[in-house]
Amino acid sequence: xxxMLKEKQEIANFEIMEQPSTIINSPFERFxxxxxxxxxxxxxAMKYLKNxxxxxxxxxxxxxxxxxxxxxxxLSKVSKVDGRYYWKYxxxxxxxxxxxxxxxxxxxxLFPFRKSKGLGILLMGITKKCPLSCEHCYEWDRMHxxxxxxxxxxxxxxxxxxxxxxxxxxxxxxxxxxxxxxIYEMLDKAKKxxxxxxxxxxxxxxxxTAQKLKAKGLTGVxxxxxxxxPEEHDAFRGRKGTFEIVMSAVMSAKKANLVTGICICPxxxxxxxxxxxAYMELAKKLGVTFVQVFEPKPAGRYAxxxxxxxxxxxxxxxxxxxxxxxxxxxKEYPIINYIGYHQRRTxxxxxxxxxxxxxxxxxxxxxxxxxxxICNTLAFSAEDTINLLQQTQGCNYFAQSAPYAEExxxxxx
Length: 413
Ligand code: SF4
Hints:
With 413 residues, this protein is an alpha/beta fold. The protein folds into 2 domains: 27-110, no CATH class; 121-412, Alpha-Beta Barrel (TIM Barrel). It is built from 14 helices and 11 strands.
């Protein structure tokens, strides 16, 4: 491991050159995309509902819902990687089978046409190993023990939730890239219709692994970067040299044509206008598609600690989110994803409604931060697991979002 760290540091010890942006700015291309997306929406709605009135209704509801949840119109900022379009980290690239599966799930929740409710995203922790000791780690209590899930177990769980209807699976850890052979096998055995992402510290993500992952069908990587200042990022991650590892990993991922994002846990000490602006400058320079904002919560290693952001800091983050995604002067910057923004307005989508988390023991949790084991996903069917999750009290930090069926009643009233 030390050798790898040294090698990574040597590779990354260079001035970062401005990388090409993936954001599309051609009005004609955006117009074409809008037309294609509308046609795709109509095709999927008609395929399952076979009723033009219901199809028109469902399309309008979903478009309105998007604006309410994200606080911005559909396609306000779009990127293109390897021929597919991306506008939200939580949504599969378009066009794809996964994107159609995602729409079918949304439609099914409003006007049920099949038994399985389906998920939006499944988060899976695939290893207890990690070379870092991040101050916010939510897997901390389960780390550094013997692995409980074999590669066959991981494949079994993956297939179970693909059959249930899951258009996006995010593989995390521990550090998932320490189990890259298991990821290769999962990707080899995955069925069509799901986008796969890896959430990583950047460890072991180099030209070779990135290209192999891409060849096996990986969609993208979300690399954690918690400060634009190398020393601060390293301190947060508990290991010197990790900033350079991130820089190098992002370059390798982009070179391999993977969709690439960086994820920040903005701490109370870091969150001010100057720092977030500098962070976005670095994100632009790196040419990443997404910046994911993941607010600190008193869970895992942060449990019992006074780490929640102040109100003025949340306001800064929300302003950045809205401005950078919509104002013309920021059109070249990456797309910001900010889960806290949506959750404060529409409630939490965890607990098996839109997503849930399977830890490194195979146990189901409402989400990575609301950690309380509900049942083991190897022993229980997907349907039973989701039903059990939905009987829990929901998120510890946000109200639960209204189920789609309830929303529909409100909309149709
Ligand atoms: S947060 Fe992730 S990278 Fe950091 S110690 Fe925990 S598992 Fe490792």
